[in-house]
Design brief:
D-Maltodextrin-Binding Protein, domain 2, 2 domains, two-stranded antiparallel sheet, alpha/beta, nine-stranded mixed β-sheet
């Protein structure tokens, strides 16, 4: 259940949405549930249960759809219809949120535009008693002007996993800097094995971590572009250097979010999310190590993108209070379902501190190492970073990484777009 990477614009989810590649994971099935979940009369009269529509994108992990249906069926206070959406979920959601026939409850990723467009309901009342049990970053990424708009469902750190035996055989230590990573990828490349897999586009997904590893960020605390200095340009240039080294696997049967490449011995290292750990452990056993995205140099520190999915309530819902009650029941009160969702369909960190602390599957081995790296180096999304900004950043990365364009020139182009967006939002 990986998260998207909105800042780089090329997460597993974004990639699949834009290319229709979800069919590579599962058949292009019809959305589950034939109706919208809306009551014909506005709902709830005469003592009948209200109808609620809950929307999900299509997860690739086996059992996720069945779990979502199980949770909905178990809810006693409303009839919850689950819509499981293959293909371009974001486009369908954007349309649905404009209509009274859209979702009551939906998952997604928060940004300021959702508030400016009056699409989501504040959830401070249902979060009040448990706010301190959520990780600060997961609160901040769903908070704007002091109001909380979403409940984090899962945390998805993205890191680099590697084959210990291959590094040991080559006499290579786990990379600590980006230069170390480039050097290791070259040395690990043979006529049968590439050094690293970072996605079939050559590494756009690492744009965010590279930026943070240079000491930069997307937006500063006062909402100014934070990716424009020489160190950021240097980091982006290093991604091109890695791509140009011919040690990056391209043309893999699936993309960076799937562990097939490392599991089948096609690469020695792979950038991927913690969700893939169970599958990698099954294939590789103890021959699996993990590092964060390496720091640019001694002046900076490594980076781990801490992504995830969040549950929201639509302002268009005919039953806002009932929808909020359902979200509270599922994602705040029902701890057994939250644990199930985080740990039984790939590995994810439960957003609740109390649940994460007792998650037995995350207490040892590479999973525990990943959790620790996330605690030490994790960063989350800035809600002021909009999809349009993300597209400009993705263009920057594409032009630098694959085309070898001048990083400073590409940064200037992206900065212009980001500044225009910031002016539109904040004046």
């Amino acid at each position: 259940m990986p998260a998207h990477v909105p800042n780089a614009g090329l997460s597993r989810r974004d990639l699949l949405k834009r290319t229709g590649g979800l069919a590579a994971l599962a058949a292009f099935t019809a959305a589950c549930g034939g109706n919208t979940g809306r009551p014909s009369s506005g709902g709830g009269s005469g003592g009948a249960k209200v109808n609620l529509a809950q929307w999900y994108h299509q997860y690739g992990e086996t059992g996720t759809q069945q779990a979502a249906l199980k949770y909905a069926k178990a809810y006693p206070d409303a009839n919850v219809t689950v819509q499981w959406t293959p293909g371009d979920y974001d486009a369908k959601l954007a349309s649905g949120l404009l209509s009274s026939k859209g979702p009551d409850v939906f998952e997604g990723h928060f940004n300021i535009g959702m508030v400016k467009s009056n699409q989501v309901v504040p959830l401070d009342d249902i979060m009040a008693d448990v706010k301190d049990d959520f990780q600060p970053g997961d609160l901040a990424t769903n908070t704007l002007d002091g109001k909380i708009y979403g409940v984090r469902m899962i945390i998805d750190p993205q890191v680099i996993y590697y084959r210990k035996s291959l590094l040991d055989k080559a006499g290579i230590k786990p990379p600590e800097t980006i230069d170390d990573l480039i050097s290791a990828a070259k040395e690990l490349t043979t006529n049968k094995v590439k050094g690293i897999f970072v996605g079939n586009d050559g590494g756009n997904v690492m744009g965010g971590p590279a930026l943070y590893s240079s000491g930069g960020e997307y937006l500063t605390k006062d909402n100014k572009p934070g990716f424009t200095d020489d160190r950021a340009a240097q980091a982006f240039g290093k991604l091109h250097e890695l791509y140009a080294s011919k040690s990056v696997l391209l043309g893999a049967p699936t993309d960076w979010w799937d562990p097939t490449a490392i599991n089948q011995g096609l690469v020695a290292m792979q950038f991927i999310g913690m969700w893939a750990v169970p599958g990698m452990q099954k294939a590789l056993g103890d021959d699996l190590g993990v590092i964060p995205f390496p720091k640019l140099d001694a002046q900076a520190k490594p980076a781990v993108y801490s992504g995830g999915w969040t549950q929201f309530v639509s302002t268009k819902s005919a039953n806002v209070d009932a929808a909020k009650k359902f979200v509270k029941w599922l994602w705040i009160d029902k701890s057994e379902y939250q644990e199930d969702w985080s740990l039984n369909y790939g590995f994810h960190i439960p957003p609740r501190k109390s649940l994460a602390a007792k998650a037995a599957k995350l207490q040892s081995g590479v999973a525990a190492d990943t959790v620790k790296l996330t605690q030490d180096y994790g960063y989350t999304d800035n809600p002021a970073w909009t999809p349009k900004m993300g597209t400009a950043f993705t263009d920057l990365l594409t032009n630098v990484i694959k085309k070898g364009a001048d990083p400073a020139a590409e940064i200037a182009k992206a900065e212009k777009t980001v500044n225009a967006e910031l002016s539109r939002l904040f004046g």
